[in-house]
Design brief:
Strand order of the largest sheet of chain A: 9-6-10-11-12-13-16-17
CATH superfamily of the largest domain in chain A: L-asparaginase, N-terminal domain
Largest interface: A-B, 74 and 74 residues
Number of helices of chain A: 12
CATH class of the largest domain in chain A: Alpha Beta
Distance between the termini of chain A: 61 Å
Strand content of chain A: 15-25%
Shape of chain A: elongated
CATH topology of the largest domain in chain A: Rossmann fold
Largest sheet of chain A: 8 strands, mixed
Oligomer: homodimer
Radius of gyration of chain A: 25 Å
Number of strands of chain A: 21
CATH architecture of the largest domain in chain A: 3-Layer(aba) Sandwich
Number of domains of chain A: 3
Helix content of chain A: 25-40%
Chain lengths: ~425, ~425
């Protein structure tokens, strides 16, 4: 939606355009700030100003209000696509998928919409262009709760193309809700990669003063360029400070808070690396940059379920669902347990050809079906156990293993992408 | 299974019985330790000795091995049931349910079986009897993955009876796997209580030297007797030290590690109290001891599902399950999101009379459906949101609310047992 005819004509008569410094007197209060772009979903009567404090405010303006232009700022030109050869800068591909990192708040409803393009995002952090030749493109523009396995596949193809075309890194702005699932999917699909693939999100929309979009993006770029790492990673703020970040293996990371900036956590391992100011500290070995060509394996068995066990889960309710699925990942209790009824159902499902993988809803620690009777019954039923692999990662890996391996059990129980520890003695 | 005839006759000829100090030379190695009870599931050829180091070992003994009694220790008499009036000690009911806290390791398979009774457990910590008149009874003897909602109901009745009969506290040894679910169920079912109800578990079976069964039990007893608290709580070790414990509200606690002693965590709030040595520090207000009579509300709507959302969850797969259920708790991504397909399914289910509650699989932080389009679509679909309530607690509460309230939405969104924060502004 554009501005109302009245507001349009006021702005036109002032020759005010985005980036100009405006004074608005509305309902008796004066506001001075830079005029921000008007988004499709915004109220036609609302101007958005970025105040000197850095805060953006939305002001409902009526025709009776005073609006004047204080200063006509030079507007930043959109970044030109320069050939990397010309400048000698390395090319970094930025593949936009949508999410809060590329969204803006609607000041009428307070809601956040996906809108900004990867181009806008890259352009909004001019410091990034000083470090590399940024090559942004928009693959999707969706919130991550609408990401589906087919999007992972499309993304894996696009990332592979960039890497094989010589990109120094691929940075993927992504909605945080399912970023962990996507990171795990890319880890398995891409296999060995020559350069880092870094997913980066934002818990605050990018037009908000407290947004973590820019700092996360900038940190991802620096990490990708300066460190000798060739892994699929997630990079996000790791604490209250603006200059603290953690870099997580894509298969070990989980969103553990619905709204905090430092919501992402490596589970069962420390993060691959921690960044503070410009210091980077590594906690684990990882693959180095190389000239390997990527040959992605993007096939997935999509008929796989992820189910959490709970007391009162009735085998009779879940019987059709589980028996008819090709694969099931359960997050059992504790070391990987379910009730007797469900053991029977799982046994029937496995007998019928369903692959059943057991994980733990504790999220930390490993499964171990050798300790209690229930566990041994599950082993006898043919359940596959995957040590300390996250339920979400096991779900993604099972889809991938069933489409790409002749020996699903062996593939599931072999660490491929740092997704699980080596088999070891359990102390229970 | 008892000892083999050969081993039986050796032990008989020595007049060796449990508690005696034995020397066993087996396969050329000498072992000296106290003879432990022989359990039904143990190998008939295996003696279990508790070594001076505190460790228990199982020794396979053949008839050719040397076995001698070094010392015939005086065996502890089983504690007599004394009337509390006689001794002036307060009566503490111990209601056994099973689980690792009341289990022993099978030294043949290394597996752990439920076996010890609440009586055995109480008797095994003689220091406990110094503090109170212990009144143990066994309600169930099952591992907690086999606890079902009907067990919560039976337990609530048994606890109510003890409290109304004047017990100073009720301590419930419970398997850790589903202890959080049971604690939440008791919280809602019991309502206001005159004295504390403390669930206590163990991550190491009680015949292992590293067992946390006794220390957790002892800490629960002391907390119950010495502190002015009348809540349903979970008490467990909170750190590596033997004398650190946390007391959690029953509705806020979650098992967050499959095997560590300090697996239990309060989510979204600090624990009600922390204990170190004999110091107790409270982090929240709570209900005080009183003379109120308990009138439990144990009815449950058992046709409720708990489902985690994940990318690739197809509405078509879950359609029958969700539409035919009376209630569904979803753990959505981030602030409480699911994909467009699932929004449609949820909308149909709500229209058909299913109560649908949204929580977050992040486990920390609150849901907020007012921020993104998906969220507002879910609100329009009629989804109930429950702030920062855990998915598992929301599942239990929905079962309870649907059976005990005429206004399920209102009951779900009103804090009753510390299960959720007060509604507040969300900063996203």
């Amino acid at each position: 939606m554009s501005y109302s005819p009245e507001l349009s004509s006021v702005l036109e008569s002032l020759q005010a355009s985005n980036g100009d410094l405006l004074r608005v007197i509305s309902s008796g209060r004066e506001h001075v700030g830079t005029l921000m772009p008007h988004h499709d979903f915004s109220d036609p009567d609302v101007l958005v100003l970025k105040l000197k404090s850095g805060y953006n405010i939305g002001i409902k303006v009526s025709v009776d209000d005073d609006v004047s232009v204080l200063e006509r700022a030079a507007r930043r030109e959109p970044p030109r696509r320069e050939k990397p050869a010309v400048e000698g800068r390395k090319r970094v591909a930025i593949i936009g998928t949508g999410g809060t990192i590329a969204s803006y708040a609607d000041y009428r409803t307070g809601a956040v919409h996906p809108a900004l393009s990867a181009e806008d995002l890259a352009a909004s952090v001019p410091e990034m262009a000083d470090l590399a030749y940024l090559d942004p493109k928009v693959l999707f523009s969706i919130f991550s709760e609408n990401m589906e396995p087919r999007h992972w596949q499309e993304l894996a193809v696009a990332v592979s193309k960039e890497l094989n075309d010589g990109a120094e890194a691929v940075i993927i702005p992504h909605g945080t809700d399912t970023m962990g699932y996507t990171a795990a999917a890319l880890s398995f699909m891409l296999g060995e990669i020559p350069r880092p693939v870094i997913l980066v999100g934002s818990q605050r929309s990018s037009d908000r003063p407290s947004s973590d979009a820019y700092s996360n993006l900038m940190a991802a770029l620096r990490f990708a360029l300066e460190q000798d790492v060739a892994e699929v990673c997630v990079l996000m703020h790791s604490g209250p400070s603006d200059d603290e970040f953690a870099v997580h293996f894509g298969t070990r990371v989980r969103k553990m808070h619905s709204s905090r900036r430092d919501a992402f956590r490596s589970m069962n391992v420390p993060p691959l690396a921690q960044m503070k100011d410009c210091e980077v500290e590594f906690n684990a070995p990882c693959r180095r940059k190389s000239d390997v060509k990527v040959t992605p394996s993007i096939e997935l068995q999509k008929d796989v379920l992820l189910l959490q066990y709970y007391p009162g889960m009735h085998a009779s309710q879940f019987s059709n669902l589980i028996v008819s699925a090709r694969g099931v990942v359960m997050s059992g209790t504790g070391l990987g347990h379910v009730n007797r009824d469900m053991v029977g159902l799982i046994s029937r499902a496995v007998y019928g050809g369903t692959e059943v993988v057991m994980t733990t809803q504790c999220l930390s620690g490993a499964t171990n079906l050798g300790v209690y009777d229930t566990g041994r019954d599950l082993i006898n039923a043919g359940v596959i156990t995957v040590m300390d692999m996250l339920p979400e990662t096991a779900y993604v890996k099972l889809m991938w293993a069933m489409a790409n391996s002749d020996d699903v059990r062996r593939t599931m129980t072999t660490p491929l992408q740092n997704e699980m520890g080596e088999r070891r003695e359990m102390h229970v």
